[in-house]
């Protein structure tokens, strides 16, 4: 470990309030005792109130009030960090190895009571998330570093329905995790405008020598949501969709990523949403799983689309059944 890591580790060990000799510290950290002395000197010079007690039961200790300083974490903060790391890791956080090292340090320099507390609460929370493969993880690291440094990237991207990847130059402004997928948003020089891309569709990524300045007002999160959620960017020409259903069905519908965002009014047994006209081509597929639990009050256009889609699905399975019977 570096000297800074050793100094922080000594603070962690002493924050329990018990005395530890230089040899005990050295053995715990697997470093030379002279390194302990140098670190103690540096800590004292930095203002850490470390006291050396002489005698048979002597050793180094730290004043209690300093153990409560912002440099160290209380048990609830330790628990929160461990549990937050579970979410980050399962979501495919691109710097998982560094995250694991940080949590290992947190546990290594905790006292027995703190460690038991963290372990119990860490085991009490789980996240179910599709795994992120190594290729996507490596691209996320490149994208995040490039966004932080203002470095342009050369990107090969597999657009939906395209026969082969397209090559483009891209200025990444940030990465976003949403609904189990990672996205990046920034300026696409191929299109000459801001765009967002699914990271799992990137086929190649490399740094360029060119640098860029991110617009101060640009929000990668808001830009992505504006492209995915109808009406998020304040577009005109929205359609009013009014649905009647039992409360349980309405509750589920209002938690849906699209309808929850677009809800404008909710009253007993009825909800009103404002959706873009372009969304009508796929809204029926989101409503079909509710079956007869929903009654569409308006617009007539959506009722017609539901009937059309339902008839198409019924015809598809009727033909499938006929094939099996023959």
What does this structure look like?
Residues 239-309 form the WCX domain. Pfam families: HTH_11 (PF08279), WCX (PF25583), WYL (PF13280). Residues 139-205 form the WYL domain. Residues 8-61 form the Helix-turn-helix type domain. This is WYL domain-containing protein. The protein is of the alpha+beta class. The chain folds into 4 domains: 3-67, Winged helix-like DNA-binding domain superfamily/Winged helix DNA-binding domain (Arc Repressor Mutant, subunit A), CATH 1.10.10.10; 75-123; 135-227, Roll (SH3 type barrels), CATH 2.30.30; 238-317, no CATH class. It has 13 helices and 11 strands. It has helices at residues 3-14, 22-29, 33-45, 64-67, 75-90, 96-108, 112-123, 134-149, 220-228, 247-255, 257-262, 283-287, 300-325; strands at 50-53, 59-62, 151-157, 166-178, 181-188, 193-198, 202-211, 238-245, 263-267, 270-276, 294-298. A 5-stranded antiparallel beta sheet has the order 6-5-4-3-7. Strands 9-10-8-11 form a 4-stranded antiparallel beta sheet. The chain has a two-stranded antiparallel sheet with strand order 1-2. Strand 9 (263-267) and strand 10 (270-276) form a beta hairpin. Helix 5 (75-90) packs antiparallel against helix 6 and helix 5 packs parallel to helix 7. The longest helix is centred in the last third of the chain and has 26 residues, at 300-325. The radius of gyration is 29 Å and the shape is elongated. The N and C termini lie far apart (72 Å). The model has no long low-confidence stretch (mean pLDDT 87).
Question: Helix and strand layout, with pairings?
Answer:
Elements: H1 3-14, H2 22-29, H3 33-45, E1 50-53, E2 59-62, H4 64-67, H5 75-90, H6 96-108, H7 112-123, H8 134-149, E3 151-157, E4 166-178, E5 181-188, E6 193-198, E7 202-211, H9 220-228, E8 238-245, H10 247-255, H11 257-262, E9 263-267, E10 270-276, H12 283-287, E11 294-298, H13 300-325
């Amino acid at each position: 470990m570096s000297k800074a890591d050793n100094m922080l580790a000594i603070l962690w060990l002493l924050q329990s309030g018990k005395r530890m000799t230089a040899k005990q510290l050295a053995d715990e950290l697997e470093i030379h005792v002279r390194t302990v002395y140098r670190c103690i000197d540096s800590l004292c010079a930095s203002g850490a109130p470390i006291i050396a007690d002489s005698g048979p039961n002597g050793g180094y200790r730290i004043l209690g009030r300093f153990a409560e300083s912002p440099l160290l974490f209380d048990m609830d903060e330790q628990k929160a960090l461990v549990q937050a790391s579970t979410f980050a890791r399962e979501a495919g956080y691109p710097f998982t190895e560094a995250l694991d090292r940080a949590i290992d340090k947190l546990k290594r320099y905790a006292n027995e009571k703190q460690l038991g507390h963290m372990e119990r609460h860490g085991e009490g929370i789980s996240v179910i998330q599709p795994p992120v493969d190594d290729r996507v993880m490596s691209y996320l690291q490149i994208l995040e570093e490039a966004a932080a440094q203002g470095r342009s990237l050369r990107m090969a991207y597999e657009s939906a329905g395209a026969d082969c990847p397209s090559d483009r130059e891209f200025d990444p402004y940030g990465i976003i995790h949403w609904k189990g997928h990672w996205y990046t948003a920034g300026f696409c020089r191929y299109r000459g405008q801001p765009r967002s891309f699914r990271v799992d569709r990137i086929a190649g990524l490399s740094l360029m020598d060119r640098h860029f300045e991110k617009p101060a007002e640009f929000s990668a999160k808001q830009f992505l949501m504006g492209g995915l959620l109808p009406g998020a960017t304040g577009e005109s020409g929205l359609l009013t969709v009014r649905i009647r259903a039992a409360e349980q069905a309405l509750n589920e519908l209002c938690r849906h990523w699209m309808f929850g965002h677009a809800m404008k009014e909710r009253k007993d047994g009825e909800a009103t949403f404002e959706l873009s006209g372009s969304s009508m081509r796929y809204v029926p597929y989101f409503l079909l799983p509710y079956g007869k639990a929903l009654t569409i009050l308006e617009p007539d256009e959506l009722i017609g689309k539901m009937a059309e889609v339902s008839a198409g699905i019924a015809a598809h399975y009727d033909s499938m059944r006929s094939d099996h019977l023959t």
